[in-house]
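Sample entry (79 residues):
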Amino acid sequence: MNKKATAQLVDEINSALKDLMWGSVEIYVQDNVVTQITVKNIKKTRVSTRDESKRLENSKNEKQVLTNRKHTNILTNID
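Predicted structure, serialized as tokens:
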């Protein structure tokens, strides 16, 4: 590969990486020739699939169960 082709390839790879926050850059080679540069962007997200009110209700119920268990343990240890 000559210097011009090498510089052009490096420029294309740099361009592919330029705006990539999460993801990958794949370089495909066939018969010692780069045939393709593929950029795969990954969008990181965190979205609850449960209704927020149900989550809060479940959280309250779990706390109540734990509180009830503590009271039961305390009463059991008194005997």
